[in-house]
Amino acid sequence: MGVQAEAAGPPPFVVAIGASAGGLEALEQFFRRAPADLGLCYVVVQHLSPDFESLMDKLLARETSMPIKPIEDGSPLAPNAIYLLPPKKEVILSEARLLLAERTAGRDLTFPIDSFFRSVAQDAGARAIAVVLSGTGSDGSRGICDIHRAGGYVLVQNEITAQFDGMPRSACATGIVDAVLSPAEMGAAITAHVESPLVASLSGGGRADDTIDQPTYAILSLLKNACEIDFNFYKTATIGRRIERRVSLTGSGNIAEYTRQLRNDPAELSALYHDLLIGVTGFFRDREVFERLELDVLPRLFQRLPAGEEFRAWVVGVASGEEAYSLAILLTEAAEAAGQQRRVKVFASDVHKESLEAACRGVYPEAALAGLT
Questions:
Q1: Is 20 a catalytic residue?
Q2: What is the distance between the alpha carbons of residues 267 and 272, in angstroms, rounded to a whole number?
Q3: Which of 114, 123, 139, 178 is an active site residue?
Q4: Of 124, 171, 176, 369, which has the maximum CB count within 10 A?
Q5: CA–CA separation, 101 vs 355, rounded Å?
Q6: Under 8 Å CB-to-CB from 361, ≥6 apart: which residues?
Q7: For residue 47, how many other CB atoms are within 10 A of its CB?
Q8: d(CA 206, CA 127)
Q9: Which one is catalytic: 47, 148, 193, 352?
Q10: Concatenated DSSP letters for 54-81?
Q11: pLDDT per residue over 261-318, tens digit each?
């Protein structure tokens, strides 16, 4: 009977927490204020030395009433519980179960937080909540993009409060973070997010109701008239959260008041437009697609290209340019592999002016190149 009752309800919200150096103190502060009665499942993925004997469960037990469990292979998620990743392991989420794998020995660069975040995005959809805490490096900054695209919620520790700001800084550089807070402030933000009318209406399977309410429709109509872009086909959860964010930032009392402000404030309408158009991209982001291009598609195209003709490619929705430059790299290598000296031209387009300007500059932080050969 208990299993039937659990299956009948909506899937749980999954709070995926990534931390590294300096993360223990941040975790203690986080769980001191984290909601323990909203049915949330907390999963902590922290970079640990293989020889490190963690006392994290005992230390966190002083800060929260929730049970703290080491992850076992196949563990089903239980509400109002905390799951900790054992050393030497990596974890993904699949069908609301935590699946363990041995961490590959000898790999200099591993991104267990990114891997877990991506699996949570696929499994929990808009019920995913990502939290990036103190740590060095850039792990987590790619995975939060998947959670953002799935309609989830992304929180990052304020760099000022982090012992090591590498991970928070890399996450913020993506431009898709919903809030930057101290660990102690995140619990209230999660509560407000989960209990907001839009998010509370999420149906089974982690998808939001596609119906757009009248106030939101009015805002989207204003955007369409001013910017000539129809946002009606965006995920409603993403739209709603971005609008709620602007409502909060402008101090408007509600969406109706914010709509009235938009009618008379072109600058705020433009700010909302840019918020909705934040691009999510990265170098060789969809690796399976790029591998197919490299190994199969491009060699055949170069073989079929008549002598003397240039090779042209078009990247649509280029955002800040990483995909276009990734394709240019593959095209250069494919031409060299074919023993050809070809003129290669890559066209890249986007509706977001600031993204195109960043793409034209072609300057990226070191973290954006992490994991490349």
A1: yes
A2: 9
A3: 139
A4: 171
A5: 38
A6: none
A7: 21
A8: 5
A9: 47
A10: --HHHHHHTT-SS-EEE--TTEEP-TTE
A11: 999 898 888 888 877 876 667 888 777 889 999 999 999 998 888 888 899 999 988 8
Per-residue pLDDT of 129-147, as tens digits, reads 999 999 998 899 889 988 9
Residue that has been written with the tokens 């769980």 in this structure: 31
Our answer to whether residue 139 is catalytic in this structure is yes
- Burial label for 5, CB within 10 Å (0-12, 13-18, 19+), is exposed
Choose among 169, 246, 186: nearest CA to 215: 246
User: Which position has the token pair 């959670």?
Assistant: 147
Tokens in use for 129?
């909540």
CA distances 284 to 2, 24, 137, 316, Å, are: 44, 32, 19, 15
Beta-bridge partners for 129: 15, 153
Residue whose token pair is 């990483």: 322
Cβ–Cβ < 8 Å for 134, 20: yes
Rounded CA-CA distance 132/189 in Å is 14
